[in-house]
Design a protein that fits this description.
The chain has about 150 residues and is an alpha/beta fold. It has one domain: 3-Layer(aba) Sandwich (Rossmann fold). The protein contains 5 helices and 5 strands. It has helices at about 15-25, 55-70, 90-100, 115-120, 125-130, and strands spanning about 5-10, 35-40, 80-90, 105-110, 135-140. Strands 3-2-1-4-5 form a 5-stranded parallel β-sheet, sandwiched between helices. Helix 3 packs parallel to helix 5. It is globular. The two termini are about 30 Å apart. It comes from Amphritea opalescens. This is Universal stress protein. Belongs to the universal stress protein A family.
Length: about 150
């Protein structure tokens, strides 16, 4: 059904990636599919620390994130190809831009159960669902996971 699947990740919750990969595999319905893992680094969103920030530290973080993503979904069927992307910026903006750039069929992402803070500040998942150029599957994580 879906063959071009975008999976935005929070690398501080690597345990969620296996579940996301399993769901994406089911969405592919046994057909060849491309899974794109996306990590968005929001460290420079406001640019406050940018002039003093060591660029080599940022490059090392980028390399470590890409290496971590490459090892997360090793046990998928042979017809599922996995690529990894690292972007800087606001998470929901980068997810939407990447989905459009990749011409994604679907986005599969985690979201925690809403709490009082989500009534005042919208979540990335909410913004992605509202503006995505494709279908979006939100997998609910427990509030204690975040």
């Amino acid at each position: 059904m879906y063959n071009n699947i975008l999976i935005p990740l929070d690398l501080s919750h690597k345990e969620q990636v296996v579940e996301l990969g399993q769901i994406a595999t089911k969405l592919a319905e046994g057909k060849p599919a491309q899974l794109c893992l996306l990590y968005v680094d929001q460290s420079f969103v406001h640019g406050a620390g940018d002039p003093q920030f060591d660029k080599s530290l940022h490059q090392r973080h980028r390399k470590e994130a890409l290496e971590a993503m490459e090892t997360l979904l090793a046990d998928l069927p042979d017809n599922i190809q996995v690529t990894s992307l690292y972007r800087d910026g606001v998470a929901h903006d980068q997810i939407l831009a990447t989905a459009k750039q990749l011409n994604a069929d679907v986005i599969v992402m985690m979201a925690r159960k809403p709490g009082i803070s989500s009534y005042f500040i919208g979540s990335n998942a909410e913004r992605v669902v509202r503006h995505a150029p494709c279908s979006v599957f939100i997998i609910r994580g427990d509030a204690s996971d975040s």
